[in-house]
Amino acid sequence: MSGFNKVVNSYEEAMEGLEDGMTVIAGGFGLCGIPENLIAQIKTMGTKELTFVSNNCGVDGFGLGILLEDRQVKKMISSYVGENALFEKQLLAGELEVELTPQGTLAEKMRAGGAGIPAFYTATGYGTPVGDGKEVREFSGRKYIMEESITGDFAIVKGWKADTYGNVVYRDTAQNFNPMAATAGKITVVEVEEIVEPGELNPAEIHTPGIYVNRVIKGSFEKRIEQRTVRQG
């Protein structure tokens, strides 16, 4: 990798520098738009004591769920955790620390972190356990709690296309948490389905500018469906 070319050719190189105890922000929603190969590389590396910031923790045997198998995850900061039996087992046994965060708040924590904003106020969670111990202020007669932003040592992201400069386009609902996650990592790694040359992406359609991205890798993806629902004939 030299100059402006951010393409790496192996997943070992893509996740180089990840160490025990780091915080990783992961894009995706359910199993949609998850960086499945980067997650698999973390499992291969055996890195432990990790804190993950992600909407959810995958499912048993796929996505972030595979990192629970060898107890690589110390803490999850998530908004939804209902699809993973091993997650439930470790949580109830006190083996996994979990910080539940409202979904919109979680997205804003990532976005604010990427924008250099240390904290913000939101009405979401006021008067509930989410707001316990947090600063409260009143604006225009309504109570708000202060939420601190989030940044990570790494951000792992799934895109559709990227150019060699690291400009990224997401497809459809993979725009969920990925654009916010991409801004909030000290090292942001994006895996994509296709890499093109600079100038081939329409500048008006780029979702994540390359200035946020450190490494890009082309992968192949299973794209597993979390819950297949079809209409009965």
Automatic annotation (TrEMBL):
It comes from the Bacteria. Its EC number is 2.8.3.5. InterPro entries: 3-oxoacid_CoA-transf_A, CoA_trans_fam_I, CoA_transf_BS, NagB/RpiA_transferase-like. Gene3D superfamilies: Glutaconate Coenzyme A-transferase. One of its GO terms (molecular function) is succinyl-CoA:3-oxo-acid CoA-transferase activity. Keywords: Transferase. It is an enzyme of class 2 (transferase). Belongs to the 3-oxoacid CoA-transferase subunit A family. NCBIfam families: pcaI_scoA_fam. This is 3-oxoacid CoA-transferase subunit A. It comes from Amphritea japonica ATCC BAA-1530.
